[in-house]
Design brief:
The protein is built from 14 helices and 25 strands. It is α/β, with parallel strands linked by helices. It folds into two domains: 203 residues, Enolpyruvate transferase domain (UDP-n-acetylglucosamine1-carboxyvinyl-transferase, Chain, Alpha-beta prism), CATH 3.65.10; 210 residues, Enolpyruvate transferase domain (UDP-n-acetylglucosamine1-carboxyvinyl-transferase, Chain), CATH 3.65.10.10. The strands form six sheets. Strands 18, 19, 20, 21 and 22 form a five-stranded mixed β-sheet that branches. A four-stranded mixed β-sheet has the order 23-24-1-25. Strands 2-15-17-16 form a four-stranded mixed β-sheet, with helices on one face. 50% of the residues are buried.
Amino acid sequence: MDKFVVRGGNPLLGTIKVSGAKNSALPCMAAAILTEDEVILENIPQVQDIETERKLLTSMGAEVQLGYGRAQHRTHIKCAILSDPVAKYEIVKTMRASSLVLGPLIARTGIARVAMPGGCAIGGRPIDLHIKGLEAMGATITQDHGYLEARTDRLRGAHIVFDKITVTGTEDLLMAATLAEGETLFENCAREPEVTDLATLLIAMGANIEGAGTSTIRVQGVARLHGARHRINPDRIEAGTFLMAGAITGGDLNVDCCEPAHLGSLIAKLEQCGVRIDVGKDNIRVRSGGQLTASDITTEEYPGFPTDMQAQFMALATQAEGTTTVTENIFENRFMHVQELIRMGANITVSGRTATIRGKTSLQSAAVMCSDLRASASLVLAALVADGESILDRVYHMDRGYERLEEKLRGVGAQIRRMGDVFGKK
């Protein structure tokens, strides 16, 4: 099992490039189910979740070619025949985004059987919003032995108001609506850039969509969609992680190939913490402005502060003078990184959905455990400023969503290396 070995103390200097967004690429790959023609996606990140999605589509009968060499970030998908419209548990158990194939499968084939990863139950989980929406569009849905099965002759348009904002729910039902009969009106939609990215692809495929990126989306169903070529958005969470890495190490880092417009809430918060930010057209330069100062955050749906940056910001807060409060409003149980940061010397207390960080503290090297994707990134940031050499175990979580993170960080001065079998090694 791979580990990262990180020695702290080096400021990050130079230019680091951002990969394509995993959370855009996954729904865009699922959208290829909606047509028999070829869909070409560019700027696809080389991360484990993409490989899982490739296996999933291939198991259904699709032809999926991941590029190599100069075309290594390009993917060709052709779903001419979907011989087995089932998302099997053994493939999707590590990836919650598997629910994104539910809508396009039933819209295209009239039947879908999708395993819920990690034992997700219908009810309190966001998957119930997918189900309510598809039922409103005429699908019959049953649950059996950990699988959802959906059937319909053809979906029909409906007026759907989401009970709560859901990114995957908005994406899944948006895809389903493109082939539904008549008009579908969605209200209380997610406004994340990933939703807009998906809509851009669907429109290129021939879908009739208005309002993506707002809380109200209107879709006029069409009889069929065709192939298209689309470039995936830059990963705003990876970009944000690099911005914080530059800030926490007191470096001078140019984060290149990003979309600054998607990072407004984070940029504003870093400036409040005393970080110097220079914004370009497709790059952001972050420089240490001296001592970091505490500033509170509350995670919210886009365009608010993203929950996927909460753990990384907490690591930054350990190096800020004063008391920081972090309130997590999106996900339950998303403070699993706290105990590991405490092992490194952080002063953090948790009460319900709020964590209180008292800084500045001198972090010390330690052996720590990565518990999920973003928690892993927070431990890397902490290790970059810790005294001594830290060992991060279970970095396969990192490989799910960050493309060759250790190589990128090493290129700007970090002392970080991987121990074990290298992901993607031929």
